[in-house]
Specification:
Distance between the termini: 59 Å
Number of helices: 4
Structural class: alpha+beta
Shape: elongated
């Protein structure tokens, strides 16, 4: 029963756009008064749904499926009738088909039941500018090397993946008309109202059926740094700005699964 609860929670995460999560990482945003920015992310990204999570609750065969029935009066478990078992199996197959279609939509049309999905996903991502490498470590966890330098002429979000459903960005930069830049990192914070990855991780060690594997659940663990030669107008670090050399100041946030407030800073480039 707990295993099925985890399945439902995982599906709920995808629906609420908690589709990607940072793992161990180092990330930096450099904002220069010259009108240029550089963003880097090196570390793990967990893609919920690309690995063993695709098999949660899915029996490898009908022989692996076990129906569960309970007495209406006592609530105790009892043996199922053949009709009850067949009905539960039919419902299970329908749920699995619906879940597979949901994964396919989130992955931009890639079939999660196709063994080549990982390779196709990597090929799609690596053709985008900034993605230097993407290596699958297993269980839907990727080692990522991303770096991009560009003019401060437009807003920026990371990550953006072609054809993949929208989700909360790890880092967002908004360029204002008054020569100010706001940088925030909503994807580095764990909002209990919409992100239950930590809760799933706590449950992941129990309730799996024999032969079934609940995937490893990944939570953020890293640092996010902003460096700039502009004026830092506001920020929510605990220590404030420090000098970083070359006339630059820096803000550093330590990100863990306990981080509740997204890093934020407002920078003036005048």
């Amino acid at each position: 029963m707990l295993y099925r609860i985890i399945t439902v929670m995982a599906a709920s995460l995808m629906v609420t756009s908690c589709f990607l999560s940072p793992g161990k990482f180092e990330s930096e945003m450099v904002v220069n008064k010259s009108g240029e920015f550089t963003f880097t992310y090196k570390g793990e990204i967990w893609v919920l749904g690309l690995s063993s999570l695709m098999g949660i609750g899915q029996a490898a065969s009908e022989a692996d499926f076990t129906a569960e029935c309970f007495d209406d009066d006592s609530g105790e478990e009892r043996a199922c009738t053949l009709e009850e078992a067949e009905e539960q199996l039919a419902n299970k197959k329908a749920e699995d088909a619906e879940t597979a279609e949901a994964f396919k939509a989130l992955l931009g049309g890639l079939d999660p039941n196709d063994p080549q999905t990982i390779d196709m996903f990597i090929a799609r991502v690596e053709r985008q500018k900034g993605w230097n490498s993407l290596v699958h470590k297993g269980e839907g966890i990727f080692d990522v090397d991303f770096s991009l330098t560009a003019p401060l002429s437009h807003d920026f979000q990371f990550p953006i993946i072609e054809k993949v459903a929208s989700f909360t960005p790890f880092v967002s930069m908004i360029v204002r008309k008054d020569n100010k830049v706001r940088v925030s990192a909503p994807g580095f914070a764990q909002d209990d109202s919409s992100n239950s990855l930590a809760s799933l991780g706590a449950l992941a060690g129990t309730g799996a059926p024999a032969g079934g594997g609940i995937p490893k659940f990944v939570t953020p663990n890293g640092t996010f740094t902003i460096r700039t030669d502009g004026a830092i107008l506001t920020n929510n670090t605990e220590e404030g700005a420090t000098m970083a050399g070359n006339g630059q100041k820096q803000l550093v946030w330590t990100i863990t699964s306990a981080t509740k407030e997204p890093p934020q800073a407002l920078i003036s480039l005048d």
